UniProtKB/TrEMBL annotation:
The family this protein is said to belong to: Belongs to the TRM44 family.
Keyword tRNA processing applies: yes
Protein name (record): tRNA (uracil-O(2)-)-methyltransferase
EC top class named in words: transferase
The species this protein was found in: Clarias magur
InterPro entries: tRNA_uracil_MeTrfase, Znf_CCCH
GO cellular component annotations of the record: cytoplasm
Reactions this protein catalyses: uridine(44) in tRNA(Ser) + S-adenosyl-L-methionine = 2'-O-methyluridine(44) in tRNA(Ser) + S-adenosyl-L-homocysteine + H(+)
Stated role: Adenosyl-L-methionine (AdoMet)-dependent tRNA (uracil-O(2)-)-methyltransferase.
Methyltransferase among keywords: yes
Pfam families: AdoMet_MTase (PF07757)
C3H1-type domain residues: 595-625
Chain intervals annotated as zinc finger (C3H1-type): 595-625
EC numbers for this chain: 2.1.1.211
Taxonomic path: Eukaryota, Metazoa, Chordata, Craniata, Vertebrata
């Protein structure tokens, strides 16, 4: 199969690396792969190298070398390395289950001059000899055409192709799924800002333990008492716990110790990570300013404390091996500092999420990086200043913020601790000086779910002598997604914006005709559209200032009122419920069924032409007599 693609060779190799290093992103039956170090060889050395990695089995298939070179560019006689040879081990998800599938091994041969990569599957037979699976050899090539490039897939023995649907995918899958993905990635020509997932630990060990813990703790989903999504939070914390358990096991093996590491989770939220780590034999505790309902379900062996954390001498942990910051918000930049000041041997793991500096929100200073990349770099800088050898990795969790930083050993000797502390103190004071008084005032005026205005005296009592301006999270969480605004305030804005839209005229005749759906809809006013900026100009300054204190502001309010408005491409329209279509998602259907007739129909009450739908077809109530009580809980997204 061939596929035209706009890219350069660099983009091709980036795409190939995704498939080699992270096959699970395309093939969901896999959970990852590991690689050996690649050997760079010349054309003359290629056969010898292949014989070495395949135990000589390549000699049984002399036409393999012909296939390798069949589609490569004619570069003449070269002695310089133009080929790269390595071995990857592909790990199926079913590998750790009863009747486990085997691991799959492939020799990866890259023709660096000809933009070609070949996959040679190998297996070990009953006699312990390595054999080459000739029937499953395939090759991906980038060929230059007159005006563009073409991505092509070649197979050695298509008529003998064998598939088990896992490590040996179907030939149709390679052509219909893999090749388009490679073409898409190659055209992007965009290397990721972050490392590959699980680059610091054994993928095999992680995969085995993750499946075990997932089965062990999945019952928590059924009894989850919080209003957050149980499946997301349970499996995310299982994945984070798995990572830490493998990391710590490898640390024990490296250091030759048997006792399991102790830990403190700062800002532990629902406490599930602490529960898993305690259950798996690691002594430690979690601390959070607010107790969650689920804490009472864990039992006495899970150690959780309800307490406000302030960066100070009162919150040092000299006997603790590891500090954890899992989406720790305003504490995130302080965790390397707390670890460094707790003891010379204290290490840390932090998973940055919301962007905070030492005192207030983090202010961007570089436009060439994404905000997330810049913030991760900032926390890494804090770690380095604190004297840590810092490592970065990417977790496999259902979150867009999944890059973790790990501070292990120190970059200075214990005797240099006093000088290291001077550097830490100077750095923190320098960062705090960057935030001027106006920014601090703004933070206090707009204090939200991460800030508490009344903690000044408590901070002083706790000995918060590490700097000024730090505001811990509120004990009682404030909702800032416009949902807690007064109903009259919201209704007034909705009515004003809707009437402005309905008052717009001058629509093209063709558009009016397209809006008509059957005879019953002729004459129903859909109004026009306004940009978010134009909608903002309809409101007074006092209203706008109130909305600015909410996450997302005016746009969030309009989207929250999706019964009335449709917000697309920065434009606000009146929603037409006649064109809502058929919901095919069972989960979505269930949500609509749960909410049916639990709110009054805005159009029935306020639209000059009434609701365009008859009462029996409208999901909202046409009058008080049509209402029924709601049974849906309000959703929150806090850990």
């Amino acid at each position: 199969m061939n596929r035209e693609v706009k890219c350069r060779p660099e983009g091709f190799w980036c795409a190939v690396d995704v498939w080699i290093k992270k096959p699970h992103v395309v093939n969901k039956r896999l959970c990852g792969a590991t690689e050996t170090e690649y050997r760079h060889v010349s054309c003359e050395e290629l056969e010898l190298c292949l014989c070495s990695v395949t135990g000589g089995s390549v000699r049984d298939f002399p036409h393999i070398l012909t296939f390798l070179r069949a589609h490569t560019a004619d570069t003449g006689h070269q002695t310089a390395p133009g080929w790269s040879v390595g071995v990857r081990t592909v790990i199926p998800k079913a590998w750790m289950q009863p009747g486990a599938a085997k691991l799959y091994k492939e020799v990866i041969v890259k023709d660096l001059n000809g933009q070609t990569v070949t996959f040679l599957p190998i297996e070990e037979n009953s006699e312990g000899h390595i054999i080459l699976k000739e029937s499953n050899v395939y090759q991906v090539q980038l060929q230059e055409k007159t005006d563009d490039w073409m991505l092509s897939l070649h197979t050695l023995r298509p008529e003998q192709w064998f598939s088990d649907g896992v490590g040996y995918p179907r030939l149709t899958w390679l052509t219909s799924e893999l090749l388009p993905k490679l073409a898409h990635w190659a055209a992007q020509d965009k290397a990721t800002e972050f490392k590959s997932t699980l680059s610091l630990i054994s993928v095999e060990k992680y995969s085995i333990l993750y499946q075990q813990l997932k089965l062990k703790y999945k019952e928590l989903i059924k009894v989850w008492p919080e209003v957050t999504d149980p499946e997301k939070f349970v499996f995310e914390d299982v994945a984070i716990a798995t990572y830490l358990l493998v990391l710590w096991a490898e640390e024990r093996a490296e250091k030759g110790i048997t006792s399991k590491q102790s830990f403190v989770d700062l800002g532990c939220g629902n406490g599930l990570l602490v529960h898993i780590l305690n259950n798996e034999g690691h002594p430690g505790k979690g601390i959070d300013i607010r107790k969650r309902k689920i804490w009472d379900m864990y039992g006495p062996n899970t150690h959780l404390e309800e307490k406000a954390i302030t960066p100070s001498a009162a919150f040092l942990f000299p006997e603790t091996d590891w500090l954890i910051g899992n989406h720790s918000d305003e504490l995130t930049p302080w965790i390397p500092v707390i670890a460094a000041r707790s003891s010379y041997h204290c290490r840390y793991f932090v998973l940055p999420c919301c962007f905070f500096d030492f005192c207030g929100k983090y202010q961007r200073r570089q436009c060439k990086k994404s905000q997330y990349r810049e913030y991760v770099d900032f926390i890494s800088e804090v770690s380095a200043v604190c004297g840590f050898q810092t490592h970065e990795d990417c977790l496999r969790i259902p979150s867009t913020k999944r890059v973790c930083l790990i501070g292990t050993s120190r970059s200075y000797e214990l005797a240099e601790e006093e000088l290291a502390e001077v550097k830490r103190t100077d750095y923190i004071m320098g960062r705090q000086a960057l935030i001027d008084n106006s920014t601090v005032v703004t933070q206090k005026e707009h204090s939200g779910p991460h800030h508490h205005q009344g903690d000044g005296q408590e901070m002083t009592k706790a000995g918060c002598d590490w700097g000024t301006g730090f505001q811990p999270r509120e004990k009682i969480e404030t909702v800032r997604n416009c949902a807690a605004l007064p109903r009259d305030f919201v209704d007034g804005i909705v009515l004003k914006v809707a009437m402005a839209l309905l008052g717009l005229t001058g629509k093209k005749k063709e558009e009016e005709e397209e809006d008509k759906i059957g005879k019953e809809s002729i004459g129903w006013n859909l109004g026009g559209s306004l940009s978010i900026r134009e909608v903002a100009e309809l409101l007074d300054q006092s209203t706008l200032q109130t909305l600015k204190k909410e996450c997302g502001g005016l746009q969030t309010l309009l989207k929250n009122n999706h019964q009335v408005f449709r917000v697309e491409g920065g434009k606000v329209h009146i929603r037409d419920w006649r064109t809502r279509g058929t919901q095919t998602d069972p989960k979505r259907k269930s949500q609509i069924s749960d909410a049916l007739k639990t709110r009054l129909c805005w159009f029935h009450t306020h639209h000059p032409d009434g609701c365009p739908l008859p009462s029996k077809d409208c999901v909202f109530a046409h009058g008080a007599d049509d209402l029924r009580p709601s049974t849906r809980p309000l959703k929150k997204h806090r850990r």
